[in-house]
Design a protein that fits this description.
Strand order of the largest sheet: 13-16-15-14-17-19
Structural class: alpha+beta
CATH architecture of the largest domain: 3-Layer(bba) Sandwich
Number of domains: 2
Radius of gyration: 24 Å
Number of strands: 22
Shape: elongated
Largest sheet: 6 strands, antiparallel, barrel
CATH topology of the largest domain: FAD/NAD(P)-binding domain
Length: 418
């Protein structure tokens, strides 16, 4: 009997996993990738170390209810056992999971090797310009005039984030052309521009800090970790975690402001990396007490020397201890804007998951179509959440496409989490 054929559009993590899963299920698979090589964005994941999953509580935005249903059906531990079954040794660092060699290239090489062993055809420099079809099959046409046909199709083109590493709005139009609605797109997990920006003399400094996002007197969200000072504003994981909420506050005209608490540089306070309570205690008085003690015990010396990075100490040297304590405990940086998707790690917005079955990733609007990864209106926090969703949804889509699984009629939970 003729094998069922599956066309996968997109050669990122989700598309490659879909290709492997569909081929393992017995389908004849073709992957179309617009770039010279597949998996380019995967290589940049986790600064090249590839944090591919997170065993902690889920942190998803957009349609978080849909993400929850997908992960309930295909838990993270099942993803890890699948990857290990494909030949990828894994290592855990607390809640985060990495390839054992801590190299993203190992993940990409393993996926490509698996595809090769399964005789999956991968066509590069194949930018899909149109996609037509339904229950009787699909036809994709590329920019160079090639035509590819298959019984089923998996759309896994990724998101706009990453500039040259991401997709274009034209890729979302492929889903729209088959009946799906796309919500507004913008960058999440993105650096934040402030007005004023930090002094140029501090640009490039990386500082341990608590960062809070405010709208008026209300703290909207708080994160801790390493802050990178730049000539336009601030970056670093803890800042990028605040980007979505900052963007929403700007859209609502609420004039958001960041405050950077540098007390972890000075005080014996263990710094957790991740979300913190907005009610975390203000350390101004503790910093002031430390400064006064150093002034008394080090007469004739600059009390900031050796306590802070030289560039920061120099900027504060002529100020009084009260003002220094105020700035170090809550340095105000009004938000000008969130940097666009080209600078972001993930895209917020995308195809509305209400038209997708979370158990199969099958379209409820176009039989035979499956959707996966960042293309959907699901984005996660830093820490492996986005890559694990791309891989899990890709595996479900690939297996379902090969088996011609029909969309479930079960209701979809929707909602947002922070």
């Amino acid at each position: 009997m003729k094998k069922r054929s599956v066309l996968v559009i997109g050669g990122g993590a989700g598309g490659l996993c879909a290709g492997v899963a569909a081929a393992e299920a017995g389908a004849a698979v073709t992957i179309l990738e617009k770039r010279v090589k597949p998996g380019k964005k995967l290589l940049a994941t986790g600064n090249g170390r590839c944090n591919l999953a997170n065993l902690g509580p889920a942190r998803y935005f957009g349609d978080s209810g849909f993400a929850g249903q997908v992960l309930d059906h295909f838990p993270v531990e099942r993803l890890l056992s699948t990857l290990e079954g494909w030949g990828l040794p894994l290592a855990r660092e607390e809640e985060r999971v990495y390839p054992a060699v801590r190299q993203a290239s190992a993940v990409l090489s393993l996926l490509l090797e698996r595809l090769n062993a399964l005789s999956v055809r991968t066509v590069t420099e194949a930018e899909v310009r149109s996609l037509e079809g339904g229950k009787n099959g699909f036809t994709a046409r590329t920019a160079d005039g090639q035509t590819f046909s298959a019984d089923a199709c998996v759309l896994a083109t990724g998101g706009l984030a990453g500039g040259a590493l991401g997709c274009t709005e034209q890729d979302y139009q492929l889903a729209e052309g088959l009946g799906h609605r796309v919500t507004p797109l913008f960058g999440a997990l993105s650096p934040i521009e402030t007005q004023p920006a930090p002094p140029k003399s501090l640009s490039g400094l990386r500082l341990r800090a608590y960062v809070r996002l405010w709208a008026g007197k209300k703290c909207l969200q708080a994160e801790s970790g390493e802050v990178l000072l730049t000539d336009y504003g601030v970056s670093g994981i803890c800042v990028m975690q605040l980007a979505r909420a900052a963007r929403e506050a700007l859209d609502q005209g609420r004039a958001p402001q960041l405050t950077v608490d540098l007390s972890p540089l000075l005080l014996p306070d263990p710094l957790p990396f991740g979300p913190i309570s907005p009610d975390t205690a203000d350390r101004r008085q503790d910093i002031l007490a430390l400064l006064r003690h150093r002034i008394r015990s080090l007469p004739g010396q600059d009390p900031l020397c050796g306590l802070l990075p030289d560039a920061l100490a120099h900027r504060l040297r002529d100020r009084g201890p009260e003002e220094i304590a105020r700035l170090l405990s809550a340095w105000p940086l009004p938000v000008k804007r969130v940097r666009e998707a080209a600078y972001a790690q993930v895209t917020a917005g995308g195809v509305e998951p209400g038209g997708v079955d979370p158990l199969t990733m099958g379209s409820r609007l176009c039989p035979g179509l499956y959707l996966a990864g960042e293309l959907l209106n699901v984005d996660g926090a830093c820490g492996g959440y986005n890559l694990q969703f791309a891989m899990i949804s890709g595996i479900l889509a690939g297996r379902s496409a090969a088996a011609q699984s029909n969309p479930s009629t079960k209701p979809i939970r929707t909602g947002r989490t922070s």
